[in-house]
Amino acid sequence: MLIIGLGLLILGAEALVRGSSALALHLGMRPLLIGMTVVAFGTSMPEMVVSVQAVFSGQAGIALGNVIGSNICNLGLILGLSAVIRPLAVQSQTIRLDVPVMIVSAIILILFLFSSGLSRLEGIVQLAFMGLFLGYSIVNAGKDCIHIHSADLGVGDIRHWSFIRIISYILCGLVGLIPGAHLLIRGAVGLARSWGVSETVIGLTLVAVGTSLPELATSLLAAFRRESDIAVGNVIGSNIFNTLAILGVASIIKPFPDLNISWSSLGSMLILSLLCLPFFKSGFRLSRIEGFILIIIYGLYSFIMFY
Question: What is the pTM of this model?
Answer without folding.
Answer: 0.80
